[in-house]
Design brief:
The complex is a heterodimer of chains A (1111) and B (352). Chain A has 1111 residues and is an alpha/beta fold. Chain A contains 39 helices and 38 strands. A seven-stranded antiparallel beta sheet of chain A has the order 14-13-10-11-12-15-16, with helices on both faces. In chain A, strands 31-30-27-28-29-32-33 form a seven-stranded antiparallel beta sheet. In chain A, helix 26 runs antiparallel to helix 27. The longest helix of chain A is centred in the middle third of the chain and has 19 residues. Chain A is globular, with a radius of gyration of 29 Å. Chain A starts with 8 loop residues before the first strand and ends in a 7-residue tail after the last helix. Chain B is an alpha/beta fold and 352 residues long. Helices cover 27% and strands 24% of the residues of chain B. Chain B is built from ten helices and 15 strands. A ten-stranded mixed beta sheet of chain B has the order 6-8-7-9-10-15-14-13-11-12, sandwiched between helices. In chain B, helix 6 links the parallel strand 7 and strand 8. In chain B, helix 8 crosses helix 9. In chain B, 50% of the residues are buried. Chains A and B meet through helix 9 and helix 16 of A and helix 3 and strand 11 of B. The complex binds adenosine-5'-diphosphate (2 copies) and magnesium ion (MG) (2 copies). One adenosine-5'-diphosphate binds next to strand 9 and strand 14 of chain A.
């Protein structure tokens, strides 16, 4: 059956901001889908609120809407664009939920729009856990036993059937929160009551626990003729109970016989047929009892998922692209396999290597939260590594994680939760206690568990014991043991290692750094001796067919084997280093920049080589660059690629801090770094050197100093004066940055830092190359971000973004607007001048990001990043000027002057600015980390961002809030609980809101103040004052917005803590800064003022709009 | 290129005389067990892997793969760049080889290779077929086996050219009483057993060299008609398919790239559906040589367009080149056994 001719225009829904559980993988899948459908001649309309995506690039879709992903806004797009069909299976849960909402409300029917990929009833059958179970049982498949309860008696009745332990899941809570594992009857009552209470419809699912069983996933594809294939099988290293997103996973499945694997395969097909997903990819999760092989189905996702992205990268089979084609009527046998180009896509990839995915966590930013891994996903990113064996791939993944490890051990690093027990001696009296402690540590999974297993093995525990403690398959633990054994062998071998041992070490994934640690040498000595022995990596192709057919894709991984398959061409080529795993502070924005760099270099005739290890990304799609090396971003791995490819140069500016940190070692190894010179990069990152430059250029900055001891710190504080901004040196994403208000806070900060650096040894000072950096904290200052381009001679300001939150809240967590709204002409002029001066001085070639703070009309510089920034894609989307592309061209040697002539938009923008406003808002993962106080600080904690765009600030801000998932109230009650310093300033805003018809509520102090100034306010009790208190009001939905500005002293903060926690738990919008309150007020005013209802407009239309700036 | 099922492969008689290389790097993770045997012994001559597991981890496992191979005296090596070897075999075609862990003298090994026999022209069937007839009762493996036995509904004679036991299990699970006979059993002897259906199994080597079997199949097709009786349903698998082809007058040839592994897409032309199949054959029935007036093409390989299945236009005889009993491998093609059973039922109705 060829493609459908009855549809011409297709709407694709993206997945919105990056949140935990929904990351760049949907940019990857959406981008593939848009390209595939346009290539088939369809008109494609796209809606996604996330500006940092490739899919929202204006040249990709026919019409691109950066608008909030809510049913209302999608309906507006439908009204305007009149698509024939919606493809909702490529935008994660977000897109599916929207499709369901639009379908159920009749919007699709009204506008005559068809759902393709998955129909409403299929989505419902898969998404509604009750319906899902029923459907599976009818299809003859087993699911964990379960029952639904609406009260405690019913719940109790169900437990009789199921037994303990069991899982309680309240229905319809946000992100599955409130689910619990219950081991005893006592626990049960408490948890069941809590669960019933937390479900908005008072419904809980009580489910048989299959904790400790093996967990597997299969990726299935089905076409409209009911042909089904399995693309990839994935085994979880971690057992059931640890979310697959938080588990180390392996492809293909390692510990099943063929007969068992075929059971999973057969059941997958039964499942996809029973659910009725007509075309496309689905992900099916199974649990298997390791003792009996009993299989139960856990869940099915009727769409492409995080695992499909992984499966695509692991096998070379482009699931999203094929899914898009299947959705428009193609059959699997009508689509060709890109890699072989001779065989059709209806086959099952066979792989001849091992793929390991390891998640990356961010618990260090949420220290107050429970760090146990459970059925709710908490990781923020992942790396994938390919090796011939599990051991090789695991070690590559561990060093690719960028958590300061060089592999699995062998780097002299200890972990905080490490088990520090003596070797076990069964005769010693402490043996049992030690055993119990070890068991407990290993039984409760946390993010360091693999290191804990390693330590326990080194303590002498057997594979069998550890497998019992952890429920991890003994095969995996055996692999870890083998890694350790080889480690010991290297340790006992003398330098230089024998050729055999060196080969063995490399084949098992040991990095040069690990070998250096074992032999007491440095990395370069090992590298050189290894090269002398002739032990060089060989590159193998990822070809979907295990070598059965010749492959045409240039997708490589390194290993140490006999044959190297990567023939190198003599073309002019450039290596672009990617950003590695997503983490808070470095995410999709950098992948966007890398992909743009690749595209730009293609435009000017270069071949491109991408090195990256993040499977979620567009950059690791094998048809983006000319060659893809799926490798960790370490000096060793990158240098190996460079040695082989001998490129013209390497670009380090786009992948965030990861490649930037490689600048010095790479350039010392003789590699040509394109763009801004390594010495300039160093000068902007090194405080002292940078301070000198600022002095020379007479640029104002907050006074600063540094300290290694408490005394030194106090001295610096004495000179500068409180409040201070303190931080460890070399950080990204504001890691561990604090505002300290007094000497006591300073003292405890410094001693904590000393303790954490000293690794258990008693010390009284920090190492002098890692001092604490101390700045004067600029109170009540406006913060401004600037992204600029330069070639060392000319400078182009891409965007001046005024933050909504004051300085002191990390730029990544604050909202900002472009163009700025309240900066004076002089301020803007100073900012522009400083930017130009610095760009010229540093001879920047490419992008440059500067953060400023403006206090009492004085402009201070906070920092310079000589690279693409987190805001580069936002500015590019808002202005229509592809900054990253232009930067890449500058780095390839083109002059900015010439480029300005090639991009006419740059001229009009520089002359006239924008006739509309774009607002960026950050999205924070509070719901995933209960217990953490919901406060913005200099430590960045957001995972993603959205953009709102409209004709004035109020409307653009409103869209950005809706896009970020806030239910902005247009009427109802607002609760104020403000710190003293804010009360006066909040008064006019409160008055304005009252005038707009809002009811005002306040806690005691605020109430008193407001009343004294003539406002009618209802007083609400604090939690400590008895019930009904403020949390009760929140819970009962009697408050539509919480305004809570926390005071800077620790004690007063705790009062607000419960209020904030409750607001998050019950999904009530909350504002914690006055500036955000002001913005909220403006958007309410804008909404009521505008006579026409909110409109949507495509980026393409915004860009072509007349560029006359309104007065 | 199968990622699972190494034990089934090792014990597949079609690998008689061959050294098997696995492309999946980790081999032996799940050890070995009785239920995964496809015949009474290991037929592969040698075994090559990237990394053999030191432990066996699976609830069904009874011994490690090492123990399994050592006790059967099958030489096996690991730590080999199996991908490079696979590509070599892909580019130069399947070839004779030698495996040694004691002698590393290239010239001596080469002369050993040259002295070994060629696959083309050799009848390997006689080396692997059973020595005398036997009956079979075991059903297919399932996770939760049902205790009650299926009632025997029809009698099937299986000509053993080197069979995989899963063929017998598939028949038995569908209510067939199964009797296996040696490859050299004559048509008359088979017909005297009064079968409701006849199965021609898979097996090793060059089909054209198994002349006696080709004759037997011709007789099986002809004799009942000669005697004025209804034709007995006949189902050929792999070598059985090639032999049926030869019996019907077609030709066979050696493929440059043999088909191995369990991910080959095959299209059933009668329904348009695609199945993912398990394959293991180096020879193939020449599509162009099929006598079109007698034989209809039913299945083709979507990778290279070769013949995968055919049926007689008038007689109840059909065959496939791949392994519908797939063990290991996907179960997509089990329906062919059901087709066979319905032909048998048809036959049983008409017979009386
Ligand atoms: N019945 C159960 N017993 C034990 N663990 C479970 C059970 N159901 C789910 N889990 C664990 O919780 C995780 C998340 O559950 P899942 O149903 O897949 O939800 P999600 O939609 O978040 O992926 C699974 O990956 C698994 O590890
Ligand atoms: N001296 C200062 N006064 C006020 N706020 C500051 C000061 N220095 C930093 N900040 C705040 O801390 C945030 C993070 O600091 P920054 O130096 O940009 O670190 P990072 O490298 O993590 O981006 C800034 O966005 C700003 O809000
Ligand atoms: Mg899941
Ligand atoms: Mg910053």
């Amino acid at each position: 059956m060829p493609k459908r001719k009855d549809i011409q225009k297709i709407l694709i829904i993206g997945s919105g901001p990056i949140v935990i559980g929904q990351a760049c993988e949907f940019d990857y899948s959406g981008t593939q889908a848009v390209k595939a459908l346009r290539a088939e001649g369809y008109k494609v309309v796209l809606i996604n609120s996330n500006p940092a995506t490739i899919m929202t690039d204006p040249e990709l879709a026919d019409a691109t809407y950066v608008e909030p992903l809510t049913p209302e806004f999608v309906e507006k797009v439908i009204e305007k664009e009149k698509p024939d069909a919606i493809l909702p299976t490529l935008g994660g849960q977000t897109a599916l939920n929207l499709a369901v909402a639009l379908s159920e409300s009749g919007v699709l029917k009204k506008h005559n729009v068809e759902l393709i990929g998955a129909k409403l009833d299929a989505i419902q059958k898969a998404e509604d856990r009750k319906l899902f179970k029923q459907t599976m049982i009818e299809a003859g498949l087993e699911v964990p036993k379960s029952g639904i309860a609406y009260n405690i008696q019913e719940a109790e009745e169900i437990t009789k059937d199921i037994g303990f332990p069991l899982i309680i899941r309240p229905s319809f809570t946000l992100g599955g929160s409130g689910s619990a594992i219950v081991y005893t009857k006592d626990e049960f009552y408490e948890k069941a009551i809590a669960a019933l209470e937390s479900s908005p419809i008072g419904e809980v699912l009580i489910e048989e626990s299959v904790l400790g069983w093996k967990e597997f996933e299969l990726e299935v594809m089905r076409d409209c003729a009911d042909n089904c294939v399995i693309i990839c099988s994935i085994e979880n290293f971690d057992p059931m109970g640890v979310h697959t997103g938080d588990s180390i996973t392996v492809a293909p499945i390692q510990t099943l016989t063929d007969k068992e694997y075929q059971v999973l395969r057969d059941q997958s097909f039964k499942c996809i047929r029973a659910i009725g997903v007509e075309t496309g990819g689905s992900n099916i999760q199974f649990a298997m009892d390791p003792k009996t092989g009993r299989v139960v189905l856990i869940e099915m996702n009727p769409r492409v998922s995080r695992s499909s992205a992984l499966a695509s990268k692991a096998t070379g089979f482009p699931i999203a692209k094929i899914a898009a084609k299947l959705a428009v009527g193609f059959r699997l046998d009508e689509i060709s396999n890109d890699i072989t180009q001779k065989t059709p896509a209806c086959f099952e990839p066979s792989i001849d290597y091992t793929v390991v995915k390891v998640p990356r966590f961010a618990f260090e930013k949420f220290t107050q939260s429970d760090q146990t891994l459970n059925s709710q996903m908490k990781s923020v990113g992942e790396v994938m590594a390919i090796g011939r064996t599990f051991k090789e791939a695991l070690q590559k993944a561990m060093r690719g994680l960028e958590i300061g490890r060089d592999g699995l051990g062998g780097d002299g690093k200890k972990i905080k939760t490490s088990l520090d027990f003596k070797m076990k001696d069964e005769n010693s009296p402490e043996y049992q206690t030690v055993l119990n402690q070890v068991k407990q540590r290993l039984k409760i999974p946390n993010c360091d568990r693999i290191f804990n297993i390693k330590n326990a093995l080194q303590m002498g525990y057997s594979v069998k014991e550890l497998s019992e403690f952890t429920s991890i398959d003994p095969w995996f633990i055996q692999q870890i043991k083998e890694i350790l054994d080889i480690g010991s062998e290297i340790r006992s071998g003398k330098f230089p290692l024998s050729k055999e041992l060196m080969r063995k070490a490399k084949q098992n994934g040991f990095s040069d750094r690990q070998i250096a640690y074992f032999t007491g040498k440095n990395e370069l000595e090992i590298r050189n001796s290894r090269k002398k022995l002739g032990i060089l990596p060989t590159y193998k192709v990822v070809d979907t067919c295990a070598g059965e057919f010749p492959a045409l894709t240039p997708y490589f991984y390194s290993t140490y084997e006999e044959e190297d398959e990567g023939d190198v061409s003599n073309d002019a080529k450039i290596v672009i280093l990617g950003g590695g795993p997503n983490r808070i502070g470095q995410g999709i924005e950098f992948d966007y920049c890398c992909v743009h760099a690749v595209m730009a270099l293609h435009e000017i005739g270069y071949k491109t080589i991408m090195v990256n290890c993040n499977p979620e990304t567009v950059s690791t799609d094998y048809d983006i660059s000319d060659r893809l090396y799926f490798e960790p971003l370490t000096f060793e791995d990158v240098m190996n690629v460079i040695d082989k490819e001998k490129p013209e140069g390497v670009i380090v500016q786009f992948g965030g801090q990861t490649p930037l940190n490689l600048t010095i070692p790479l350039s010392e190894a003789g590699v040509k770094i394109l763009g801004t010179s390594p010495s300039s990069i160093d000068a902007s990152e090194d405080r002292e050197k940078f301070g000198k430059i600022l002095k020379e250029l007479k640029i104002t900055h907050p006074e600063y100093g540094s300290a290694c001891t408490v005394q030194e710190a106090k001295k610096v504080a004495g000179e500068i004066g409180f409040p201070l901004m303190v931080r460890p040196s070399y950080v990204l994403g504001g890691r561990n940055m604090r505002i300290v208000y007094d000497e006591k806070m300073l003292e405890s900060y410094v001693s904590d830092a000393i303790e954490s650096q000293s690794n258990g040894v008693k010390k009284s000072r920090l190492e002098s190359d890692h001092p604490i950096l101390i700045d004067r904290f600029l109170n009540s200052a406006k913060e401004v971000d600037v992204d600029a381009l330069s070639d060392g001679e000319t400078v182009f300001i891409g965007g001046i973004m005024e933050h909504i939150e004051e300085a002191g809240i990390h730029s990544g967590d604050s909202a900002c607007m472009l163009p700025p709204q309240t900066l004076s002409k002089e301020e803007i002029k100073t900012i522009e001048e400083v930017t130009e001066k610095l760009a010229i001085k540093l001879k920047v070639k490419g992008l440059l990001n500067i953060q400023f703070a403006i206090q009492s009309k004085k402009v201070y510089i906070l920092e310079v990043n000589p690279r693409a920034s987190r805001t580069t894609p936002f500015v590019s989307k808002a202005t229509g000027i592809p900054l990253a592309k232009i930067a890449a061209k500058i780095q390839a040697g083109l002059s900015l002057k010439d480029l300005i002539n090639q991009y006419p938009k740059m001229k009009t923008y520089a002359a006239e600015g924008l006739p509309y406003i774009a607002v960026k808002e950050a999205v924070l993962p509070w719901t995933k980390f209960p217990g953490t106080d919901v406060l913005l600080s200099p430590e960045m904690r957001s995972t993603g961002e959205v953009m709102g765009i409209d004709e004035n600030f109020g409307l653009a801000f409103y869209k950005s809030q809706i896009g970020a998932g806030t239910k902005v109230p247009e009427s109802g009650a607002i609760l104020f609980t403000l710190k003293d310093g804010d009360k006066e300033k909040a008064l006019p805003i409160a008055k304005a809101l009252e005038a707009k018809g809002f009811k005002l509520l306040a806690t005691e102090g605020t109430h008193k103040f407001f009343e004294s100034r003539g406002l009618t306010v209802k007083q609400v009790k604090k939690v400590s004052e008895g019930r009904p208190h403020v949390v009760d009001f929140i819970k009962n939905q009697e408050i539509q917005l919480v305004v809570n500005t926390p005071s800077s002293t620790q004690t007063a903060q705790s009062d607000g803590f419960e209020v904030r926690a409750a607001a998050i738990r019950f999904h009530i919008p909350m504002i914690t800064t006055l500036s955000a309150l002001e913005a909220f007020k403006e958007s309410i005013e804008a909404l009521t003022k505008s006579k026409t209802p909110l409109k949507v407009q495509s980026l393409q239309d915004y860009y072509s709009e007349s560029t006359v700036r309104r007065p | 290129t199968s990622m699972t099922g190494y034990q089934e492969i090792l014990t597949d008689p079609s690998y008689q005389g061959q050294i098997v290389v696995m492309t999946e790097p980790h081999i032996g993770n799940v050890g070995a067990n009785k239920g995964d045997m496809e015949s009474r012994k290991v037929f592969a001559e040698g075994f090559v892997a990237r990394e053999a597991s030191q432990v066996a981890s699976n609830w069904r496992s009874e011994e490690t793969l090492q123990q399994f191979l050592i006790s059967r005296k099958i030489p096996a090596i690991d730590q080999i760049d199996t991908r490079s070897l696979t590509k070599h075999l892909r580019d130069s075609g399947v070839m004779r080889g030698v495996l040694s862990t004691v002698d590393f003298d290239v010239d001596r090994l080469l002369s050993k290779i040259r002295g070994s026999r060629e696959m083309e022209g050799s009848d390997l069937v006689k080396e692997v077929t059973c020595s005398k007839p036997y009956d079979w009762e075991d059903p297919e493996w399932t996770l939760s086996p049902s205790l009650d036995k299926k009632k025997v509904q029809q009698k099937v004679i299986v000509m053993d050219f080197g069979l995989k036991q899963n063929i017998l299990r598939c028949l038995s699970s569908r209510g067939c009483g199964v009797t296996v006979v040696p490859a050299k059993t004559s048509a008359k002897e088979i017909l005297d057993l009064n079968p409701d259906g006849i199965m021609l199994t898979n097996g090793p080597g060059d089909p054209a060299a198994v002349t006696y079997a080709i004759q037997t199949i011709r007789d099986l097709l002809r004799l009942p008609l000669d005697q004025g009786k209804k034709s007995i349903p006949l189902f050929g698998i792999c070598l059985g398919h090639q032999l049926l082809g030869l019996a019907l007058g077609a030709k066979t040839y050696k493929l440059k790239f043999g088909h191995r592994g369990c991910n080959h897409p095959v299209k059933d032309l009668t329904t348009g559906k695609i199945e993912i199949t398990t394959q293991n054959h180096g020879f193939c029935v020449d599509l162009d040589s099929l006598p079109a007036k007698d034989v209809e093409i039913t299945h083709v390989n979507l990778n290279d367009g070769t013949l995968e299945g055919m049926r007689h236009r008038r007689l109840p005889a059909f065959s496939v080149q791949y392994h519908p009993e797939s063990s290991g491998g996907p179960h997509d093609s089990r329906y062919l056994f059901d087709r066979f059973i319905s032909q048998i039922q048809e036959y049983q109705k008409k017979k009386n």
